[in-house]
Specification:
Largest sheet: 2 strands, antiparallel
Radius of gyration: 22 Å
Number of helices: 7
Shape: elongated
Number of strands: 2
Structural class: mainly alpha
Length: 190
């Protein structure tokens, strides 16, 4: 598989390394696991699975279901496992993040500071909620997958989420204070 086919296909290979799944199963797993740092839509998953099958990296098995549409399960082939292994050994490609909050704050002098404060307060609330969610997820993972050899790696990715949200929350609190200072200065009070 050529590199220009993108990380979606590599993500699909990685997810299928956990076991055979349908496209629906893959999307559900993304939402409950890697969805905090990686997203794939059905519009990416199904064409990706088709390309992987055409390349011989996954195989498709159809299960007939009474009164329901057929279920298509995909699993890695030996060649697919080898491709995943090769990709995992390559250094990650850095991507330039797009952050609309920072873009709006960069141009923040164009609006009252209260507008910027509202944006930052909402961002703070989001990351405080994420911190609570990450704690719940960690406990559930340890309870439900305590002996799974993948667990330490799942917890490593969760740890970055915790650290990131913690840093974001700290930055939000600092920024809110700074915006309040700017607003007081603008009003003439020190």
């Amino acid at each position: 598989m050529k590199a220009e086919r993108g990380a979606t296909l590599k993500a699909l290979l990685g997810l299928l390394s956990l076991g055979p799944m349908s496209g629906y199963d893959i999307r559900a797993l993304i939402q409950e696991s890697i969805g905090h740092f990686w997203s794939e839509s059905y519009g990416q998953i199904y064409p990706g699975l088709k390309r992987l099958a055409t390349a011989g990296l996954v195989e498709k098995k159809t299960e007939r279901q009474k009164g329901r549409p057929d279920r298509h399960l995909y699993s890695l082939t030996d060649e697919g496992r080898e491709e995943l292994w090769r990709w995992l050994r390559l250094p990650p490609v850095d991507e330039v993040p797009r952050n609309e909050l920072l873009l709006k704050l960069f141009f923040g002098a164009q609006v009252p500071a209260s507008v910027c404060r509202e944006h930052v307060a909402a961002h703070l609330a989001k990351h405080e909620a994420l911190l609570k969610r990450y704690s719940v997820v960690a406990k559930a993972l340890e309870r439900e997958h305590g002996h799974d050899p993948d667990l330490p790696y799942w917890l490593i990715t969760l740890s970055l989420g915790r650290h990131t949200s913690s840093a974001e929350a700290k930055w939000c609190k600092e920024t809110l204070k700074r915006l309040e200072e700017l607003e007081r200065k603008k009003k003439g009070g020190r």
